[in-house]
Specification:
Elements (H helix, E strand, L loop, with lengths): L14 H25 L8 H40 L1
Helix pairs in contact: 1-2
């Protein structure tokens, strides 16, 4: 898979999940760094705005990915129901 294939509509990669995972990773790095600096006796200053931004991106990415799965499953099940109704 080439890099340009990532931007096609029919690729196998879920971009929303990747963005959510990277945002969650940054939140985890913030948390680990805060714990380490707290143990060392220093106070890590993280802007609440930046942390909340990562939180919103994480929740939004995973939420959008899950809603997409739910709606795509409904379309698939509706198509299967329509076919079975037409056969009868």
């Amino acid at each position: 898979m080439a890099f340009r294939d990532i931007f096609k509509d029919d690729n196998g990669i879920n971009e929303k999940t990747i963005v959510g995972f990277l945002s969650f990773g940054m939140m985890a790095i913030f948390a680990i760094t805060d714990i380490i600096t707290g143990v060392l006796g220093n106070h890590l200053v993280i802007s609440e705005f930046i942390y909340n931004s990562f939180l919103i991106v994480t929740l939004g990415s995973f939420g959008i990915a899950e809603i997409g799965k739910v709606f795509s499953n409904n379309k698939t099940s509706n198509k299967n129901e329509e076919v079975s109704d037409e056969e009868v």
